[in-house]
Amino acid sequence: MSNPGTLALRVREAEMIAPLLKRFVLESADRAPLPSTGPGAHLRLMLKDGARKYRNAYSIAAAAPDNSTYEIIVRRVPRSRGGSVFLHEHVDAGTIVEADFPGNLFPLSQVARKHLLIGGGIGITPFLGYLAHLKGTPTPFELHHFCRVEEEETFGQLLRRAEGGKIHLHPELVTEFDLAQLLRTQPLGTHLYVCGPEIFMDLVLATARSHGWPGSKLHSESFGGAHAGGAPFVAVLKRSGLEIHVPEDQTLLEAIEAAGVEPPSLCRGGACGQCMTEVLEGEPEHRDHYLSAEEHAAGRVMMICVSRAKGERIVLDL
Amino acid sequence: MPSPSIPSRPKYKPFALIPTARTHLIIAEHAENLPDLPAGSSEAPIEFWVVVNDARAIGTQRLNSGIEITRYRSVPHLLDQLAHRLEREYVGLQLYAIGTEPFIWDVARLSRAHGLDRDEFHPTHSGTLRRRVYCVHCRSFTDNVSTNIVACSGCGAQLQVRDHFSQRLAAFMGFQVDAEVPGELPPIEEAYP
Fold it and tell me: Using the beta-carbon criterion (under 8 Å), do A212 and B94 form an inter-chain contact?
């Protein structure tokens, strides 16, 4: 049974497409059509592993035109909070999983004159959705995807489905590529989209900014990597009167939810700003993309989905 | 019957260089609108484009500050060259327009068509407050309007000039003011000097 406001999904197909990558095709468990999604949308799965709960968001790599299925690709991250390992080991064809309605924090610009997509590793997944959409539009696009040498064939196969535009697969580090040259020579009106590991995105976005790209033309999305844990600490929720121990492999938001408090949240990747929380005491260790550098320095608010405490204790207005 | 203040009435910031630019292109309707930028104002190259309404003053020169200045003999001449330039430009350009509202919004329209957005185009108002008025009935434009009521250059209707500004049309909306009782007009005043 699914709760109101959530979707019950049955795994129709599950297959390993590379040693660390598992592809899932999800369909509605009650055969009702799934909600429509646009390119860049993500799905947040709510997984129950005994007493532990995971809420992991994955980009929808493909949605069937008749809204019968969503496809996601999950990289196994051994030292993460455990959601991806659970999906790799315990979720297979026939399993029912619960999910929120899809959201989209990484939509394509409707006014772009060109789309430039730069992906790293599993950051390919939203771009697979983009490519399916873009091949039906007249707007030019260009994709540069960086991956490990041993995964070149896997990504090559994923990208073979896409047609048109310019698709470049680079089995090399982004630091070995002349990113500056690429970003210096994009026609006016180009929008840049970046998805991949945290340091990868930081490098691409910083290079773009240093070559004059305005913030309005930069789009990025990260899931997973940013909240891969850290030192344990204690969070005091002043209004709720709770003291919560946040272990090293759990996010602050997950620990708060486990204690029965449900603060507003959406992307769980430090991008959307929904979970912004006032800090009353203590110093946050910011890991989000939402707050400005000034707000990070001031430390009065934090994104509890990805950020943690610098010291042993932090007091929040929750 | 003063028109109520409407939020679409544009507000303008004083001219300032955007420090993150890779190239600055500063366009002025009149030479006296050009900002005084000493050498070293920006690491990025700065260019001035200006209308001089003088058939003898054409071409590009370099000022003492190192800034390149190109003079055009009319606004249409400048806008035509600007379209050509923007077609060949790269992301990183910051565009500035300084002048009257019809001028800066004509530049805005061109910049928007080439994909520049509010982070990349910066209008600064300078000079007369006279308005370009768009007749919502016959869709003609009437330029240089300084009064609250004006006869439309297209259909002749008596238009009330509103604060409702269309960035797309680069004009203020004008509505027929005597539609109920033809010929019955409110007092005509000099409203936009």
Answer: yes
3-state class (DSSP) for residue B85: helix
Please give the distance of CA A135 from its chain centroid, rounded to a whole number. Answer: 23
Q: How far apart are CA B190 and CA B173, in angstroms?
A: 17
What's the rounded mean pLDDT across residues B32-53? 92
Whether ipTM tops 0.95, in short, is: no
**Do A216 and B20 lie within an 8 Å CB cutoff?**
no
- Alpha-carbon distance of A299 to A288, in angstroms, equals 12
Contact residues, chain A, for B119 at CB < 8 Å: 214-217
| Predicted confidence (pLDDT) per residue in B100-131, tens digit | 999 999 999 999 999 999 999 999 999 999 99
B138 near B154, Cβ under 8 Å?
yes
The residue of chain A nearest to residue B119, with distances taken between CA atoms, is: A214
Which of the residues B82, B91, B111, B121 would you substitute to probe the A interface, choosing the one with the greatest number of A C-beta atoms within 10 Å? Answer: B91
Measured between alpha carbons, how far is B193 from B191 in angstroms, rounded to an integer?
Answer: 6
Structure token pair of residue A2: 């699914």
A213: nearest CB among B23, B92, B114? B92
The verdict on a CB contact (< 8 Å) between A186 and B91 is yes
Can you name the residues that pair with A25 across neighbouring β-strands? A13, A71
Q: What is the DSSP string of A208-265?
A: HHHTT--GGGEEEE--SGGGS--S-EEEEETTTTEEEEE-TTS-HHHHHHHTT-----
Residue A175, Cβ neighbours under 10 Å: how many?
10
